[in-house]
């Protein structure tokens, strides 16, 4: 039984809707990562499901990215377990044989942006409060190569380099211009727009679309698969550094003080 991930049958045949529900901000905790991986595995094995709309149960925050409390003040074994789960989620999403459409109904920073970038198509609600991007440098950390490659594959090298160096969080119109999202629609039309684009993608025969997707994504997937363990060790080494821990603690404190 999953608490942090809700899977519903969509209104259209062959479509499931996967909703994030991990209050307060849908941060990707270890538990949430594990529940997502299990839910995605079940959907992947369900032949009746051809497409998945991915969204947040409550509008406002799509995904707040990785859970910073999983990366602060823990031990190396925990960091290794956490990073392996982050890798696993990315691999499941990026290699999914289903059509994935992200219906972005809230803030979508860092790991949240990465999750949406693994989808085949992104529709974002036109709300200036919502932003999307890989903002890691703003936290004093570096997006790993497979985060970077996923962005490059979406927007191209130059736009990715600029966005990554500056850690830019784009509001909807700018995100559309850069190509991080494919469509921006009025908030109340988000789900219908996602279902409409899903119908277009499902009009293509599955086997042809799936093989094409695999062909396009395999080089990026292979890069991580062949060095998964080294990538984990690299993450553990970097995240354990005092300077990185201080930077993350400072960022978390700023988030907490925002309210006070
Ligand atoms: C060299 C080092 C190499 C290391 C490699 C690492 C590579 C990858 C690393 C990271 C990728 C990531 O995903 S890092 C996470 C990035 N996420 C963010 O920057 C988002 C931060 N959050 C926000 O901007 C906002 O919270 C929000 C826009 C998502 C929502 O704003 P809102 O005002 O609605 O809510 P609050 O800000 O008041 O937050 C409520 C509550 O939640 C806590 N919170 C928020 N985000 C996170 C998070 N990502 N992880 C854990 N906790 C989070 C926030 O602190 C508040 O907590 P309290 O209620 O206790 O105050």
From TrEMBL:
The keyword Transit peptide applies. Gene3D superfamilies: 2-enoyl-CoA Hydratase, Chain A, domain 1 (3.90.226.10), 6.10.250.170. One of its GO terms (cellular component) is mitochondrial matrix. GO terms for molecular function: delta(3)-delta(2)-enoyl-CoA isomerase activity. CDD domains: crotonase-like (cd06558). It catalyses: (3Z)-hexenoyl-CoA = (2E)-hexenoyl-CoA; (3Z)-dodecenoyl-CoA = (2E)-dodecenoyl-CoA; (2E)-tetradecenoyl-CoA = (3Z)-tetradecenoyl-CoA; (3Z)-octenoyl-CoA = (2E)-octenoyl-CoA. Its main location: mitochondrion. InterPro entries: ClpP/crotonase-like_dom_sf (IPR029045), Enoyl-CoA_hyd/isom_CS (IPR018376), Enoyl-CoA_hydra/iso (IPR001753). One of its GO terms (biological process) is fatty acid beta-oxidation. Pathway: Lipid metabolism; fatty acid beta-oxidation. Keywords: Acetylation, Fatty acid metabolism, Isomerase, Lipid metabolism, Mitochondrion, Transit peptide. Its EC number is 5.3.3.8. The keyword Magnesium does not apply. It is found in: Mitochondrion matrix. Homotrimer. Belongs to the enoyl-CoA hydratase/isomerase family. Key enzyme of fatty acid beta-oxidation. Able to isomerize both 3-cis (3Z) and 3-trans (3E) double bonds into the 2-trans (2E) form in a range of enoyl-CoA species, with a preference for (3Z)-enoyl-CoAs over (3E)-enoyl-CoAs. The catalytic efficiency of this enzyme is not affected by the fatty acyl chain length. This is Enoyl-CoA delta isomerase 1, mitochondrial. It comes from Trichechus manatus latirostris.
């Amino acid at each position: 039984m999953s608490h942090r991930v809700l899977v519903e049958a969509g209104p259209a045949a062959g479509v499931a809707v996967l909703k994030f529900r991990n209050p307060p901000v849908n941060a990707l905790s270890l538990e949430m990562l594990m529940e997502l991986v299990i839910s995605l595995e079940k959907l992947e094995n369900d032949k009746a499901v051809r497409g998945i709309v991915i969204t947040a149960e409550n509008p406002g925050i799509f995904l707040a990215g990785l859970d910073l409390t999983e990366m602060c003040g823990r031990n190396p074994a925990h960091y290794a377990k956490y990073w392996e789960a982050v890798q696993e989620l990315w691999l499941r999403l990026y290699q999914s044989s289903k059509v994935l459409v992200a219906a972005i109904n809230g803030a979508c920073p860092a790991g949240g942006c990465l999750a949406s970038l693994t989808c085949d198509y992104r529709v974002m609600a036109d709300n200036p409060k919502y932003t999307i991007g890989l903002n890691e440098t703003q936290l004093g950390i570096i997006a790993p190569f497979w985060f970077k490659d996923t962005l490059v594959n979406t927007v191209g090298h130059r736009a990715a380099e600029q966005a990554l160096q500056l850690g830019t969080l784009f509001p909807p119109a700018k995100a559309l211009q850069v190509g991080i999202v494919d469509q921006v629609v009025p908030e109340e039309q988000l789900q219908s727009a996602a279902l409409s684009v899903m119908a277009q993608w499902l009009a293509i025969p599955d086997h042809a679309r799936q093989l094409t997707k695999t062909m396009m994504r395999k080089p990026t997937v292979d890069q991580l698969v062949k060095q998964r363990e080294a990538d984990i060790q690299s993450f553990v080494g970097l995240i354990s550094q005092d300077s990185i821990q201080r930077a993350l603690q400072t960022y978390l404190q700023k988030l907490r003080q925002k309210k006070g």
